[in-house]
Amino acid sequence: MKKPAGWMVWLLPVASGLCFAALWLGIKHLGGVSDWLLPTPWQILEAAAQERSRLLTAAGNTAVGALAGFSLAATSGLLLAMLIGASRVLRAAFYPWLLVLQMTPVIVLTPIIVLWAGPGFPGIVTITWLISFFPIVANTTQGLLSADHNHVGLFRMANASRWQELWHLRVPSAMPYYLAGLRIAATLAPIGAIFGEYMVGNASGGSGGLGFMVYVYNTQIKIPALFATALTSCLLGFIFVAAVSFLNWSVLHKWHDSFDRNDH
Amino acid sequence: MTAAQPIVEFRDVTKRYGDGPLVLTTLNLTVHRGDFISLIGPSGCGKSTLLKLIAGLNPPTTGELTVLGATPRAARDRQAFIFQDATLLPWLTVRKNAELLLRLRGEPEAGRRRKAAALLELVGLSHALDYYPRQLSGGMRMRVSIARALSVAPELLLLDEPFGALDEMSRFRLNEELLALRTRTPFSALFVTHSVAEAVFLSNRIVVMGAHPGRIAAEVSVDFGVVRTRELRAERGFQEKVNEVTRLLHGVEEHAV
């Protein structure tokens, strides 16, 4: 596929954004929609400025929960994938159940999670972990199984043990898949944390996260502040994805074809 | 070391995969120490299968196969395989790729570094130790692959069309280098190729195979001595040998049609 020219990459998104803002203001003024239902972009930025210290604190709290759940998912997902990737028996026994579990919406499990993990931080981390865990396991398992068959032949010829084959061949082959799983998980982890905060609150008594702020602003009917919270959440998600993209780049850019100089 | 010491012996070996058709039928072949045998024939003649049998990647269906006085699997430590594709691990540097087989054998770091570096120097890659495979040309990748295979000092080297994807000039050079390497680290070789000229240049024996089912149709011996230089390709005797093998190949292919 042909790449868009350099000027298109920044000019077109700005242009479409301006069109969207014009549409927004047009609907609001022509339709006479009240500020309460649909604030202007300026009112949202104003609210963001007013609430910035609370929003930043909340974003920090959410980031801690999201990072904890994400890290838990990144390690447990890799370990589980290695287990079911290494053994045909374990794979056959557990993979279908993993898929079943993945099909279960986490929202349905929330009361049970609160019951087991407790409200507040443990519940939030558990929900985040559950939401970001599956794409990591699924991707990594696929990566472990898709090692080049010529390479497998090379290892067999060399009398490599199964452990050597896993460690020296399958795990490195799966790295791009694992990192792709982490990238999906990075978009899900902040969502999971915010959802968790919204559902289980912050019984620990300290300041809440963004999900808690949604609850607070909603009861105070501060609609521009709700929009500002959405904006903050979006920024947080962006930081997460950018961090994993950087990790992806630093692990793969030396050897993986997706970073071939000819493509850029 | 006697010249006639057999290192691979096929006795009435046949091979089929599952319920499929016969891939190889009643194969009898003895490889002697010091042999460089090329296997040549139309596609479907089972020449790659023959190598896989020796490598112990597949067992024969019937018959008996002895490799280095043992079963193929038990002899794995004393042979090495060079694939059509260089099969380098893309996440390892040239140096680490060349060390891989030694590493899998548990050789300590100092030893494997020294051995791999020496072989990489022999194949002319001392300047590229820290490169990754994707930075190398096809010919350079194959040189790393050769260095990796020779690092374990194999008595028997199995090569499955290793230079098939290279341009003719690179192929010529690698043919010459491969022969030069034999004078440093002596190994016997079974070499699958589609190129008659390559087979004549490298081998002391050429086995012409027929297809459906795979079988040995003829054998040609090539007596140009052990030391061969590029000038050989321009000699009349070389051309005559190429013609002889080509005629045999045509005969095999006519029968197949």
Kindly report the greatest chain-chain contact and the residue count on each side. A-B, 21 and 22 residues
Which term fits the overall shape of chain B? globular
What is the structural class of chain A? mainly alpha
The number of domains of chain A: 1
Count every beta strand of chain B, where a strand is a DSSP E run of 2 or more residues: 9
The CATH architecture category of chain A equals Orthogonal Bundle
| Average pLDDT reading of chain B | 91
Write the layout of secondary structure elements.
The complex is a heterodimer of chains A (264) and B (257).
Chain A: H1 6-30, H2 41-50, H3 52-86, H4 88-103, H5 106-117, H6 121-145, H7 149-157, H8 162-200, H9 210-219, H10 223-252
Helix pairs in contact in A: 2-10, 3-4, 3-6, 3-8, 3-9, 3-10, 5-6, 6-8, 8-9, 8-10, 9-10
Chain B: E1 6-16, E2 22-32, E3 36-40, H1 47-55, E4 62-67, E5 79-82, H2 94-104, H3 109-122, H4 138-150, E6 156-160, H5 168-184, E7 188-192, H6 196-202, E8 205-210, E9 215-221, H7 236-256
Parallel strand pairs in B: 3-7, 3-8, 5-6, 6-7
Antiparallel strand pairs in B: 1-2, 1-4, 8-9
Helix pairs in contact in B: 2-3, 2-4, 3-4, 6-7
Structural description of this entry:
- The complex is a heterodimer of chains A (264) and B (257).
- In chain A, helix 3 packs across helix 6 and helix 5 (106-117) crosses helix 6.
- Chain A has helices spanning 6-30, 41-50, 52-86, 88-103, 106-117, 121-145, 149-157, 162-200, 210-219, 223-252.
- Chain A has one domain: MetI-like fold.
- With 264 residues, chain A is an all-alpha fold.
- Chain A is globular.
- Chain B has 257 residues and is α/β, with parallel strands linked by helices.
- The model of chain B has no long low-confidence stretch (mean pLDDT 91).
- Chain B has a six-stranded mixed beta sheet with strand order 5-6-7-3-8-9, with helices on both faces. Chain B has a three-stranded antiparallel beta sheet with strand order 2-1-4, with helices on one face.
- In chain B, helix 5 (168-184) links the parallel strand 6 and strand 7.
- Chain B contains seven helices and nine strands, in the order βββαββαααβαβαββα.
- Chain B has helices at residues 47-55, 94-104, 109-122, 138-150, 168-184, 196-202, 236-256; strands spanning 6-16, 22-32, 36-40, 62-67, 79-82, 156-160, 188-192, 205-210, 215-221.
- The N and C termini of chain B lie far apart (44 Å).
- In chain B, helix 2 (94-104) packs across helix 3, helix 2 packs parallel to helix 4 (138-150) and helix 3 (109-122) crosses helix 4 (138-150).
- Chain B has a domain at 29-85 and 154-256: 3-Layer(aba) Sandwich (Rossmann fold).
- At the A-B interface, helix 7 and helix 8 of A face helix 2 of B.
